[in-house]
Amino acid sequence: MPQRDVLAAEKEQTAGHVSRLAGLVPGILLCSFVAILSSALEGVEARALGHPYVEALVIAILVGIAVRSIWAPSDRWQAGIAFSAKQLLEAAVMLLGASISFAAIASSGVMLLGLVAATVVVALGISFGISRALGLPLRLSILIACGNSICGNSAIAAVAPIIGADSDDIASSISFTAILGVLTVLGLPLLIPLLQLTATQYGILAGLTVYAVPQVLAATVPAGLLATQMGTLVKLMRVLMLGPVTIVLSLIAPRLPGGSGAAKPVGFFRFVPWFILGFLALATLRSIEIVPASVVDPLTKLTGFLTVVSMAALGLGVDIRVLAGVGGRVTAAVTLSLVLLLGISLGLVQLFH
Fold it and tell me: Is the pLDDT of residue 215 over 90?
């Protein structure tokens, strides 16, 4: 190819990247505005009451939901909102690794890992059984079980192509996750004073029950750094269970009724996302003191702000009217599965009093 054509192609590619980045700006600015407003409201609350009883990240979710209820953002805003809800929150999770030293939580050890694995296996069986008992199709039941037991939408997205789920099954299983995820993030901290949970207990509880890795950050920040560290670690253990689950499903997929006879390939990054690897890498570097203690506080503050921005985006993406479009059996299956998972987890955290 002549050099002139190469330069023209590179220029066109660069222009495309710039255009895509520019398309993110309106949505990111909107989420940032909601985050700044929420932080300001938290400050007003702290000055008036002496303590911020409702954290900025919770305010951001509520403000986002309120805005979404009266105004549906157009396509101009959607790309930046989606980027803030996913990539920025994943970046916040990755940066959180810099504040974690594995030595500080090594005392939980093999026992905690075994309990996490056992919880996932039991939850998979219970969720699948409930879904089938309610008469839901086989593939939809598998999606609900994996989403509830492992990591919400990410697990559903990973499992769906492996078992050959159709778009209706995927939409049905995902539709309630966003709303339940927000309700869990908002409601779970209420159990701290009600059940007199320690920071370690609450962190483990959040890690075992909250759907997505980033949402664990939102649910545990109000309880302090130790709860956030423990919750994130437990949730990462839970997410890593997606690897064995997807491998098993890829082996049995050809035998499912109506299967194509060939399982879709399972990619490494489908069940070990980049931000988990980044989190583990930063935690390792912090543990061996390559990441100095002096940078932990600035990174923690940056993580907190990114989380508030992402929670604003999450709220802006929740349409409470979607409840009307979700089938009653799917709603019942997902809700019952989550309640039972919460009950199992509350029993387990008593071992870490």
Answer: no
Report if residue 325 sits inside a domain.
yes
Is 212 inside a domain boundary?
A: yes
Q: Which two tokens stand for residue 26?
A: 């309106």
Q: For the chain, what is the mean pLDDT?
A: 79
pLDDT in tens, 12-45: 566 556 667 888 999 999 999 999 999 899 888 7
Query: pLDDT tens digits, residue range 238-273?
Result: 877 877 887 788 778 778 776 544 445 555 555 566
Taking a C-beta distance cutoff of 8 angstroms, is the pair 188, 210 a contact?
A: yes
Give per-residue pLDDT as tens, 297-313: 888 788 888 888 988 88
Task: Give the CATH number for residue 45.
Answer: 1.20.1530
Q: Which residues contact residue 81 at a Cβ distance below 8 angstroms, ignoring those fewer than 6 apart? A: 27, 30, 31, 73, 313, 316, 317
Instruction: Return the SS3 of 239.
Output: helix
As given in the structure block, the two tokens for residue 305 are 């702000």
Q: What DSSP string runs through 62-120?
A: HHHHHHHHH----HHHHHHHHHIIIIIHHHHHHHHGGG--GGGGTTTHHHHHHHHHHHH
pLDDT at 329 over 90: no
Query: Would residue 175 count as lying in a domain?
Result: yes
Q: Are 249 and 66 in contact (CB under 8 A)?
A: no
Distances (CA, A) of 139 to 13, 142, 169, 303: 40, 5, 7, 37
Indicate the pTM of the whole model.
0.65
- Residue 168 burial by Cβ neighbours in a 10 Å radius (0-12, 13-18, 19+): exposed
Count of domains in the chain? Answer: 1
Q: Is 342 exposed, middle or buried (0-12, 13-18, 19+ CB in 10 A)?
A: middle
Instruction: Report yes or no on 303 lying in a domain.
Output: yes
Host domain of residue 314: 27-352
